[in-house]
Design brief:
Length: about 350
């Protein structure tokens, strides 16, 4: 696979030898290495990485517990504490070895520790490879609101080795597919038509190509980048609502439900035809197992109101406007959102 150059860094597609990573480490003179991982990537991915790249055997390991609840200020504090105690200076390198939780959290910690230290991502989940490790967004969840504290900070490089996916549980593999299908739907008609025939490596590569093109044009999400939020207004609200109830829901699972509901809003707004609405919803419900939960507008509303895309009092969504196209800053009424929430159960799997 060919490497993809982003603004100030390169997204490398690696083989088991991690040639690009070894070259990168050789070309810089970092004072020390720190590897952030969780218990799963420590066990499944770190040994492979160190075998391929023996210089990393001297790295200090910072291990966190896996799971979204650890993308928090408390865990960020522990990471900063650990960096301080182990003498991390501004010339050290933080290596985020993990899924989106590790890359968001590690990127955030690095972006503010001593006013910023270099970091790289070595994503190990399909979601992190296809989406979270690209685009320079870092962050933590705060006060029950996802990604409410964070920075835009680009890594020094991203090194994707899809061999890590061999140990990723199937449910998490599917989770990453949700963002891949989303980007095809909003940005590339041909890719959307090919989705079920492509292998994982090709899906991830094309997804990164598309996301990179978008973030290069609009790194700070002023305009175009907002298209990436399709499915995320209702998806994030549903995810936060269910997580607050203690329900086990993954980001991608909530986003698929969000995409179905927001497709219905797009149809109400006359951005797509009924035929396109049905094609999109049918495809998503055939490819993914949809979360089977009942929820109401009243339950999602507090989270929707906190959505960063809103302007003053109006709820603004990014909405699909054809296969491979998306409009941003679309004002949506509560009645339209309520209709979409009512529509969702008709697409639950049998
Ligand atoms: N920054 C961005 O642009 C961006 C974009 C999309 C999502 N995100 C964030 O990404 C996070 C979700 O990422 P995720 O789905 O990767 O979750 P995650 O990091 O929790 O990883 C999922 C699970 O898989 C395990 N795991 C990861 N790689 C493994 C491997 N190779 N083998 C075995 N187990 C492995 C992890 O330990 C974890 O239990 C969310 O917090 C979301 O907000 C960020």
């Amino acid at each position: 696979m060919t490497s993809i150059t982003s603004k100030a860094y390169t997204i490398h597609f690696e083989g088991a030898q991690f040639k690009a990573l070894k070259q990168f480490l050789k070309s810089k003179s970092f004072s020390s290495y720190f590897i952030l991982c969780d218990e799963n990537t420590l066990h499944n991915c770190l040994p492979l990485l160190i075998t391929a790249c023996p210089v990393l055997a001297e790295a200090e390991i910072i291990e966190i517990e896996s799971g979204e609840t650890n993308k928090s200020l408390d865990i960020a504090s522990l990471i900063w504490q650990s960096l301080l105690e182990q003498g991390a200076d501004r010339s050290c390198l933080l290596i985020n070895l993990g899924g989106g939780v590790v890359s968001d959290l590690g990127g955030f910690c690095a972006s503010v520790y001593k006013r910023g230290i270099p970091f790289i991502h070595i994503p190990t989940s399909s979601l992190a490879m296809a989406d979270a490790s690209v685009g320079g967004k870092t962050g933590i969840d705060f006060a029950g609101i996802k990604n409410s504290i964070g920075t835009f900070q680009e890594p020094e490089g991203v090194f994707i080795y899809t061999g890590f996916l061999q140990t990723l549980p199937l449910r998490h593999l599917q989770n990453g597919l949700a963002e891949i299908y989303k980007i095809a739907l909003i940005a590339d008609k041909k890719f959307w038509a090919q989705l079920s025939s492509l292998k994982m490596d090709a899906l991830i590569h094309q997804s990164v190509v598309l996301k990179n093109k978008i973030v290069l044009k609009d790194p700070k999400e002023k305009n175009l980048r907002k298209v990436l939020n399709f499915g995320h207004s209702l998806g994030h609200a549903l995810e936060a609502h269910l997580l607050a109830l203690g329900v086990d829901i993954l980001h991608g699972e909530a986003i698929v439900a969000g995409m179905i509901m927001e497709t219905h809003v797009a149809w109400q707004k006359k951005l797509i035809t009924a035929h396109q609405r049905d094609e999109i919803c049918f495809a998503l419900s055939a490819w993914f197992e949809l979360p089977e939960f009942e929820f109401t507008l009243e339950e999602l509303l507090p989270y929707l109101k906190n959505d960063k895309k809103n302007k003053k009092e109006s709820l603004q969504f990014a909405l699909v406007s054809g296969i491979g196209k998306c409009d941003t800053d679309v004002n949506c009424t509560l009645i339209q959102i309520k209709k979409a929430i009512t529509f969702y159960p008709s697409y639950l799997n049998d």
